Amino acid sequence: MSEKKPFFHFLSDISKIHHRAAFTDVAKHTNPKQSQFLKLAQERYSCRAFKSTPITEEELASVLEAGRLAPTAKNQQPVHLWVIKSPEGLEKLKQITPYSYDAPIAILVGCKPEEAWVRKYDGKNGAEIDAAIVATHIMLEAAALNLGSVWVGSFDPAKLKELYPETAGWEPVAILPIGYPATGPGPNHGKRKDWWTIVSNL
After folding, report:
1. Global confidence as pTM
2. Rg (CA), the chain
3. For residues 153-165, b (16+ Cβ closer than 10 Å) or e, as one string?
4. Alpha carbon 17 to its chain's center
5. CA 176, CA 148: separation in Å to the nearest integer?
6. pLDDT of the residue at 10
């Protein structure tokens, strides 16, 4: 004889149905047409092991161009990119973060709050948001070129400014190790919340 579901399981099922029913285009949400971009976004993953093979100058130029073209608030572009690829520069990087993953290059993304758009209602500064958009464009273009990348936010900013004095006056936001991937996605890559848990109508 099959085991009965506890009552709270039924409540959970009803809640999910309610959330789904709140949309008139359920089919579109449950089975969206997969564009080239959606395929790229789905396949891109945080790469934590890289081959020693250097990326080409053309590939580097392409990921940097993706960052340059990224949208920023009021198009003020309060962002700067530093390419770390010399043996000396990469060795310094290991003193700043344990998460360089021996990538052949890394791109440091920085912002300058005093050059950014500021929301007049509450003084919210958009510099870090702009830098995050730029970094995301870089990672997606890297994926389009079959390169691996990972967003590294765990680093010592004071040590970074000490070892890379060229960054003076800029706020470091992210370090992006980039290269040819040596491994595939990790076990958490495919874990995503269901769309009805993150989307609401107003």
Report:
1. 0.84
2. 21
3. eebeeeebbebbe
4. 32
5. 10
6. 44
d(CA 170, CA 110): 6
Question: Which strand (E) or helix (H) includes residue 173?
Answer: strand 171-179
> How far is residue 175's CA from residue 162's CA, in Å, rounded to a whole number?
16
Q: pLDDT by residue (tens digit) across 154-168? A: 999 999 999 999 999
Domains, the chain, with CATH or none: 7-41 (no CATH), 45-179 (3.40.109.10)
Token representation of residue 78:
């309060």
Q: What span, in angstroms and rounded, lies between the C-alpha atoms of 80 and 68?
A: 9
Half-sphere exposure of 72 (CA within 13 A, CB side): 26
For residue 140, what are the contacts with CB-CB under 8 A and spacing of at least 6? 40, 41, 44, 66
Does residue 193 have a pLDDT over 50?
A: yes
If DSSP states are collapsed to H, E and C, what string results for 93-160?
Answer: HHHHCCCCCCCCEEEEEEECHHHCCECCCCCCECHHHHHHHHHHHHHHHHHHCCCEECCECCCCHHHH
